[in-house]
Every structure is written in C-alpha cells, then in structure tokens.
Amino acid sequence: MDPAGLTGIDPLTDLLNGVRTRGALFNQSSLTGPWATRFEDGSPLALAVLVHGSVCITPEGGAPVRLGPGDVAVLCGGAPYVIADDPSTEPDVVIRAGGRCTTPQGEELLPARTPDAGAWNAAEPDRTLLINGLYTVDVGTPGRLLSALPPLAVIESSVGTCPVSHSTFEEITREEPGQQILLDRTMDLMLITALRAWFTRPSAEIPTWYRAHSDPVVAPALRLLHDDPAHPWTLPALAAKTGVSRAHLARRFNTLVGQPPMTYLRQRRMALAAELLREPDTTLAVVADRVGFANAFALSNAFKKEHGVSPSEYRTRETRTEI
Fold this sequence. Notes:
By secondary structure, the chain is an alpha+beta fold. The protein has helices at residues 11-16, 143-148, 166-172, 179-200, 208-211, 218-227, 235-242, 246-257, 261-277, 284-291, 296-307, 311-322, and strands spanning 20-21, 25-31, 36-39, 45-52, 55-59, 65-67, 72-76, 81-84, 93-95, 101-102, 128-135, 137-139, 152-155.
C-alpha cells in the first residue's frame, strides 16, 4: 500500500503534524582560539548550524562529533551538551533556560549574541561562525518525534541543505514587525529540512513509525483516524473497519506508531483543535464538534489537560503573537 494514500499524509508529515515552535531563540557565536560552551537550557529540540570553521559537539554521556561548514546538528531530548573547538576544552560559558548566559559557577554574563547579518561574510579563516536555535515545542506532543531521534543527529552538508542562506540570515536578523514569527517559522523549516534529510539519507535505518504508513494493518487505521477524527472511534470499531481483531490492531499499532490507537487519536484531535482555535471566528462549540467532543466544556477540559492552558487562553495568546 502506498503511504501517500493516507489522504496526502506522508510519514514525516504525520510525525511532525501539529508540532510547531513559539518563542524560538537564536544566537550567534563568532569565535577564535580555544572555546567551549555548555548548553543546559533543557530545550526538547535544538539546532546548530556551522557557517564557517569547525566545531565538536559532545552530548551528555556520548562521544564527540565534529561538524564542518554547512553541517546541521539536531539535539534531542533536553539533555546537556557541549559545543567546543576541541573536546578537551573546558566550558567557560553555560547557556541555561530561556537563553540565560552564565559562567559554570552561575555568575550572570551578557546575553548570547543575537544573529548579526554582517557576520556572515566577516569570518576570518581561523574564526568559527556558529548559529544556534533553541526550539520551544508549543503545539502537539513531541513524544513520538523525540523517541524517533537519537540524542545527536548530524546532517552533513553533502546529505541535506540547510535553508539558512545568506538572504534568510539577513531576514531573521532584521528587527522589524513580525520578527518573532519569522524566527519561529524559520526554526520549523530548519527542523523539517534537517529531519527529512536525516530519515532519507542512504545509511538511514527505516524507523518503525515510518513503516506504519505502508503496513497492511496500521495504514488503514491511520487513514480512518485522519479522514474522520470527529467520528466516535473505539478500538473495537476501528478493528472492525480494518478487518482484524482488537488485540492484533492494538499490538501492531503500538509497535509501529509507538502509542495505542486511542492515544494517537486524542493527540490528533488536540493538534487539530489547536489549529482551528487560530481561526478567530470559529467558536469553541464548532471546534468541539469538528474534533469529536460532545460539547465545548468537554473539549476545554481535554485541551487544558493536554496543553496546560484553556482554549480561550491559547487563542488569546496565539492571536496576540501573530498580529
């Protein structure tokens, strides 16, 4: 069965569906000589793009990996890591939650430099220019995404092309209205581009969630959940539609997708509700009906449990951000 048959939902789109950032942080490091920075910001996803020079990235408890110009590193799970000129260099700067910059002893330092477009071409031969992005996952549950990635995934320039070109770099450094939205969407684009290259590279092992979209049991179930998320699905009803037993569907779905069918459906509904709430004229009752809840009250309770804020608070925040 062709994965594209999932009403246009390919495996990577399904994995990233509903996951987007809000309040992305970028910083620029233009360095020479011995240097090292330890990242303890706890960001569930982070990106490092090497523009000039050479660096080593060492994840907590892992081996150092060297990056060359144009390489992109995706760091997953929020564990600390060190970026340095050499693995033997001791960190003298620590990046903490919210982008705070301190010494290893906790003394406050000047904030990390925001990107400066002029630095793109200003790097000297022995100078390193590194762009870091800290990814705040704001919508959807990234559990399946995080479990699909290693703590450190390096996409070499020969495998994937980073979308941060000189012109893009100039745009994200321009302090004009809409800059934060531009930063957020640039992070999303960088992540999607990097992951597409990572999962389709020649040496990639096909993950189980990718195989789910061509599996004769799970693919039809995924199609049903995507085609009609508002339907009052139960495991028996879904199993009957796919022509297998409940136990077989539950076991196969959990093995390939990484979660039970009804958990997947709940998260799918919450991601769809978040998208609909960005439409200011769509009432909560309409959203509830379109994502399969009996009424606005039931949706509100489920949404707050999933996202930590009520639908009205979420809508107010998103509307304010996107103006």
